[in-house]
C-alpha cells in the first residue's frame, strides 16, 4: 500500500490569485476600458502571487520587462521559498469580451516545476487542436481535417454531423470554417477566450468535442496544464505571422515545423491550474456584485491527482478592503 503523505496543493492557493484578478477586473465589464481592466487584474494578481510560498518565474506573461507594470516574462514572484516553479498567467483571457460586456472572459494562472513549461519565445500564435479524454492520443494536427474529425466522432460514438468544434471568430479562420462546414461538423464560434474553449472539450456537459484553429501560444500552454490533468490533449504548430518572425526563430535554432505536443507544452504531471470567471460564460459564471461584496465561480485543477474542483466564493468587501492593498 502506498502510504505517501499528501503534498501541498498549490491550486487551492492559486485560486485566491484568480479570484483577486476577477474581482478587480469585473468592475470594468462593458466600460470599454481594456487597458484599465488589464492593469487592475495584473495588480491584484501580482499582490496575491507575492504572498504565496513559492519561487516562481513567469514563463508565460505579458511581454518583456519594459512593458511593466504587467507581469512580464522572466519576472520572479512569490515569497522566494520552495518550491521552484514556472508560472503562466493570463490576468484576463478575453479583454475584449470584458470591455464590451460579452461572454467568456476569465482570469487564469498555472504553475509547474521549474524548467517544465514551454517558452514560446517571440511566437505569439500557434495552430491548435484540443480534445477531451475520449479522443486523446488519437489526433494528429498534421493529418487531414476530415481524418481528425472522424477520429473524434468515432471516439465518442458519434457521426461527424454530431461533432461540435469551437473556433475563434477571426478572418484567418474563414477557410477552416468553410472546410468544417463542408465535412459536416457543427461549429460554435467565439470572439475570444480559447483557454476556456479548450477546457470545455473535457467537460461533456459543455457539448464541445474539439477546439480548432490559430490562437495565442501562451493560451496554449495554460490550456495544456489543465488538459493534462483532465485527461485531454492539445497539439500545436507555431504560426508564423511574417518573415521577421520566421528569421528570428531560425536564428534561435527553433524547428518551426515541429509538432508541439502536450509533453512539450508542459512536461510534468505535477501541474496546478486555476481560473475564475469575470464575465458569464459556458465554462464559468462571472463575478456577481452584491450589497455586501461579490460572488465568484472558479475552476481549480491539480495534475498529480487529476482532481477537478468547482469553487463558489463569497467575498465581503467590508472585511476585505481594510486589509488589502487593492480596493475591490
Which structural class should the secondary elements be placed in? Answer: alpha+beta
Q: What pattern of helices and strands is seen along the backbone? A: HHEEEHEEHEHEHEHEHHEEEEH
Low-confidence stretches: 1-5
- What shape does the CA trace take? globular
What is the quaternary state of this protein? single chain
Instruction: Tell me how many strands there are.
Output: 13
Provide a count of the helices: 10
Could you tell me the mean pLDDT?
92
How much strand content do the residues show? 25-35%
Distance between the termini: 48 Å
Cα-atom Rg, whole angstroms? 19 Å
Q: Helical content, roughly?
A: 25-40%
Major sheet attributes: 8 strands, mixed
Give structural notes:
Helix content is 30%, strand content 26%. The protein has helices at residues 11-26, 34-49, 95-100, 145-155, 174-183, 194-200, 217-230, 243-251, 262-265, 317-320; strands at 55-60, 76-77, 84-93, 106-113, 125-131, 164-168, 186-190, 210-216, 233-239, 272-277, 288-289, 293-302, 307-316. The longest helix is centred in the first third of the chain and has 16 residues, at 11-26. It is globular, with a radius of gyration of 19 Å.
What is this entry, summarized?
Helices cover 30% and strands 26% of the residues. It is of the alpha+beta class.
Amino acid at each position: 500500500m502506498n502510504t505517501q503523505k499528501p503534498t501541498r496543493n498549490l491550486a487551492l492557493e492559486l485560486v485566491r490569485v484568480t479570484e483577486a484578478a476577477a474581482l478587480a477586473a469585473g468592475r470594468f465589464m462593458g466600460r470599454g476600458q481594456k487597458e484599465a481592466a488589464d492593469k487592475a487584474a495584473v495588480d491584484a494578481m501580482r499582490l496575491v502571487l507575492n504572498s504565496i510560498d513559492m519561487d516562481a518565474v513567469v514563463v508565460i506573461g505579458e511581454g518583456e520587462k519594459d512593458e511593466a507594470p504587467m507581469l512580464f516574462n522572466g519576472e520572479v514572484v512569490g515569497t522566494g521559498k520552495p518550491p521552484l516553479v514556472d508560472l503562466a498567467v493570463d490576468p484576463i483571457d478575453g479583454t475584449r469580451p470584458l470591455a464590451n460586456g460579452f461572454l467568456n472572459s476569465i482570469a487564469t494562472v498555472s504553475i509547474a516545476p521549474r524548467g517544465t513549461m514551454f517558452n514560446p519565445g517571440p511566437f505569439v500564435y500557434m495552430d491548435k487542436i484540443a480534445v477531451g479524454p475520449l479522443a486523446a492520443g488519437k489526433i494528429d494536427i498534421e493529418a487531414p481535417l476530415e481524418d481528425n474529425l472522424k477520429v473524434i466522432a468515432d471516439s465518442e460514438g458519434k457521426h461527424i454531423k454530431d461533432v461540435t468544434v469551437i473556433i475563434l471568430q477571426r478572418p484567418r479562420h474563414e477557410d477552416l470554417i468553410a472546410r468544417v462546414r463542408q465535412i459536416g461538423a457543427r461549429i460554435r464560434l467565439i470572439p475570444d477566450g480559447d483557454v476556456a474553449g479548450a477546457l470545455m472539450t473535457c467537460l461533456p456537459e459543455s457539448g464541445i468535442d474539439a477546439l480548432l484553429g490559430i490562437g495565442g501560444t501562451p493560451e496554449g500552454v495554460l490550456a495544456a496544464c489543465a488538459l493534462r490533468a483532465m485527461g485531454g490533449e492539445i497539439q500545436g504548430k507555431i504560426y508564423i505571422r511574417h518573415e521577421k518572425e520566421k528569421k528570428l526563430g531560425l536564428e534561435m535554432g527553433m524547428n518551426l515545423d515541429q509538432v508541439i505536443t502536450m509533453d512539450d507544452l508542459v512536461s510534468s504531471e505535477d501541474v496546478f491550474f486555476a481560473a475564475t470567471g469575470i464575465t458569464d460564460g459556458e465554462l464559468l459564471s462571472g463575478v456577481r456584485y452584491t450589497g455586501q461584496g461579490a460572488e465568484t465561480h472558479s475552476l481549480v485543477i491539480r495534475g498529480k491527482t487529476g482532481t477537478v474542483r468547482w469553487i463558489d466564493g463569497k467575498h465581503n468587501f467590508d472585511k476585505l478592503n481594510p486589509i488589502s492593498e487593492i480596493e475591490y
